[in-house]
Amino acid sequence: MLRLVVRRLLQLIPTLLGLSVLLFIWLNRLPGGPASAILGERATEADVARINRALGLDQPIYVQYGRFLKRLLDLDLGTSVQTGQPVWDEFVLRFPATVELSVAAMLIATAVGIPLGYIAARKRGGWIDVASVSGSLVGICIPVFFLAQLLKAAFGDIFGTFGRQSTGIDATSVTGFAVLDGVLTGEFDAAWDALMHLVLPGIALATIPLAVIVRMTRASVLEVLGEDYVRTAESKGLERKVVRGRHVLRNALLPVVTAIGLLTGSLLSGAVLTESVFTFGGIGSFIRTAIDARDYPVLVGFIMFIAMIYVLINMLVDLAYSVIDPRVRVH
Amino acid sequence: MPLLTVDELTVTFGGRGRKDVRAVNGVSFDVDQGQVVGLVGESGCGKSVTSLALMGLLPSKGVTLGGRAELDGTNLLSLTPSKMRDLRGRDMAMIFQDPLSSLNPVVPVGVQVTEILQRHRGLKGEAARKEAAHLLDRVGIPDPTRRLKEYPHQLSGGMRQRALIAMAVACAPRLLIADEPTTALDVTIQAQILELLKELVDQEGTALLMITHDLGVVAGLCDQVNVLYAGKVVESAGRRELFAHPTHPYTHGLLGSIPRLDAPRGEPLHPIRGSINDQIAWADGCAFAPRCDRYEMECLTGTPELTEPRAAGHHARCANPVLATTEVPA
Amino acid sequence: MSLTTTASKIDRLAQLTARTETASGASLWREAMRRMRASKMAIIGAVIIAGFVLLAVIGPWIAPYSPTDQTWRGEVFSNRGEFVGARAENWFGLDHLGRDLFSRMLVGARQTLLVGVVSMLIGLLIGAFVGIVSGAAVTLGGKTGRRIDDAIMRVTDILLALPSLLLAVSVAAVMGQSLTTVMIAVGVVQIPVFARLLRGSMLAQGGSDYVLAARSLGIRKRRIVLTQILPNSLSPVIVQATLSLATAIIEAAALSYLGLGNPDPAVPEWGVMLSAAQRFFDNEPMMSMYPAVGIVITALGFTLLGEAMREALDPKLRG
């Protein structure tokens, strides 16, 4: 197990290196180059020259890349143009909220998606099947930001329209995870409030993963139902729940677990859109304003950050897979 | 009274918007206590469907069953699903063709054995594990306690089939159905598995319904043989009688198409021409007629009856049967 | 036996056999087409797409007003925040600048289709090229081939690791704000998807028996790749192309929402219209609803057709 972890971590290195090269090229290709990226569009010539010297842009390109890489390794992602704070600090401050939102979305998507997909497969052609298949097709066709807007307009009165920072409830921050903090400090009203504010953005963000999980579970269960080993289990006269749980679901969920991992990585994209509709105080909202402000250090930092998370999640999925699928362990 | 009586069994696949296909078209045969009965035919003749129908393993939607199938006086076709569940694995068990795909890849072999012990014999925990190890030992799997913890992919092909047999005999069923149990195995392993089945049948007095396309298996194992073609029994006889005097042109052809070492060099094989797809509806005549060298005008008018043209107890469904022994090729 | 009885015997047999004749030997694509025609999903999808394409072609001609005509500007500004809803002369009402929404929807269909098709083609053509190089390299090239393939796949891995929206944002940041940017940004996101798909499909085909058979007949590898493997690997790519038309239209709308879309207000496009309308959602939800419904239905059309194609081509589902 440990060896697998180490091997996967080593495989991370070339991916992140390659990404840093791409980002470096990208930064140099930006209109006006890094200088105007840092100074904004109203920089004077003299300022640009000064910054260029300061950044070592008069140096050969490989020296520049070396410095860029060194800064990345030091987790020095530069300074945000908008706030003047180090980008890394901004991320650490806002990340818990986004994690909370993503976890909420993933919980909704799996808790609804797996049972729904399973029932759809069992009652193939029935109304639940037709409804969930067409529902998930429509789900992936609705632009996320518009769905968020719709939810906000329809249910905003019940759950509160705006992000939790604006509710005025005095909450103590321990971990940065608002719901968890509320529970830890005994401020249950704050925890409840934070939870309520997760509902709508959570649903909006959950739509696409939900649609994918429903369809994957359905397809996977249908495939497993036709497998010989399910017939064997039936031929043994086992109770229905044993056949379903041990023989059908345990096999059918294997590909779904992989999908859930991959979807978690892509949730962050959706978070940018969802958070900005609900002015949720996470990384997503911050990135939205960074895009508007052409805050390039934040964008570069975010891309590296996300790539790292994505690869880490992939690793976790692989590890989880090796635990639940005995066939993988041997190889 | 026979242990299993199958009488005019029909299985029809159909459903919304699809043309009905009758896969089993009035099959009748008996299996006595401790008897080994063969159900022989090409793929697509309905032999596997027959076995699945008996086990109640066909999907409930889009399948219509007809006729009668009684195990010890209980009509299998009219039992409720939950009664059928109680019966399966306890009174009748089945062994399937492909041992790898028939075992759950993510559940240890041991659990797959103990779960049936728990279901029908109420054994739990250590007692179940002990019994499972004993069963694996009995079907010839060495080091059974270790094997119980392993997963199917860690076992060899022969061992997997032995494990499946262990599950099938776990509750000492009175009827064992084996659907091509050796087809997916190496030749050397095939012989071992057949040997094991024979042994179990002899020791336990279990009746065995052997479903196969392999006449070699039939010759080595079966007491009574039923030859199926296009969903109907076309010939039925004791093993010796059938091999000595194949009477239906189809059986005749099957035996003639086997290469024989004792045949003179250069002797041509006698394959049956065409495939099972070349057939006519039984209602119109003999389904085998398009592939038959002996068909006559009367073969094309209505279903031929099952008669005893040669000897008592030797049934054939043919209007123009092969009666002269000299005609057996090779 | 007389000749006539033999002849009538044969006739009778032929007649009876014909009755139970089973359809076989249909080619993969003909079989797929047959299943598509029987699939409700495919028919609904095709009808939606046909309607959408028709709209894109004739939309600008049948629009009652010019999409840029701000005739009712005064009316919008005089009742601040109160939007003029649907009425006899403006079927869908007016937008925030006093333009006729119905006309903008009709004219916008063409731009929306253009964005979808061009983005998809960018992803498809470049991605397919990369995929072919990679797939052919593995099949043909031995050790060097595998290295080339490895390098290419590493790069696509990196691109796949990025959330598509951010990749598009990065492209848009370099290229500035324009419709071309949106199309390139959305297309670039699809490149690694197509590349991986085609490569995977080619490798799967490369291991199949007919390739082995062709090789044992002494046909040159290069020829096998081009005439056997490639044509047989294309079906998942075609399915993906159909599906990615839907995602392209949705992603383009998202890019517009993030302020990276086409800034030119003279050219209406559903995604741009939808994001522009978000600001006014609380006062005038219908202004968002028209382009949103347009986008959802169109995307649904492509998705339905794509999914139906996938099902029709799936050998596992064939029965």
TrEMBL record, chain A:
Stated membrane topology is: Multi-pass membrane protein
Point out the coiled-coil segments of this chain: none
Q: Where are the transmembrane segments?
A: 9-27, 101-120, 127-148, 194-214, 252-278, 298-321
Q: Which Gene3D superfamilies match?
A: MetI-like
Q: Does the keyword Electron transport apply?
A: no
Presence of keyword rRNA-binding: no
Q: Which family does it belong to?
A: Belongs to the binding-protein-dependent transport system permease family.
Question: What is this protein identified as?
Answer: ABC transporter permease
UniProtKB/TrEMBL annotation, chain B:
Domain named ABC transporter is located at: 4-255
The annotated topology with respect to the bilayer is: Peripheral membrane protein
Q: Which GO terms describe its molecular function?
A: ATP binding
Q: What name does this protein carry? A: ABC transporter ATP-binding protein
Domain of life (superkingdom): Bacteria
Q: Where in the cell is it found?
A: Cell membrane
The residue stretches assigned to a coiled coil in this entry are none
Where mainly found? membrane
Question: Would you identify the family this protein belongs to, as annotated?
Answer: Belongs to the ABC transporter superfamily.
UniProtKB/TrEMBL annotation, chain C:
Broad class of the protein's primary localization: membrane
Q: Which domain of life is it from?
A: Bacteria
Keywords (alphabetical) are: Cell membrane, Membrane, Transmembrane, Transmembrane helix, Transport
* The ABC transmembrane type-1 domain, residue ranges: 109-306
List the membrane topology term(s).
Multi-pass membrane protein
Compartments (UniProt record): Cell membrane
**Cross-referenced CDD domains, in alphabetical order?**
TM_PBP2
Pfam families linked: BPD_transp_1, OppC_N
Could you list the residue ranges that cross the membrane?
Answer: 42-63, 113-140, 152-173, 179-198, 237-260, 289-309
PANTHER family, per database record: D,D-DIPEPTIDE TRANSPORT SYSTEM PERMEASE PROTEIN DDPC-RELATED, OLIGOPEPTIDE TRANSPORT SYSTEM PERMEASE PROTEIN APPC
Query: Belongs to which family?
Result: Belongs to the binding-protein-dependent transport system permease family.
Q: What is this protein called?
A: ABC transporter permease
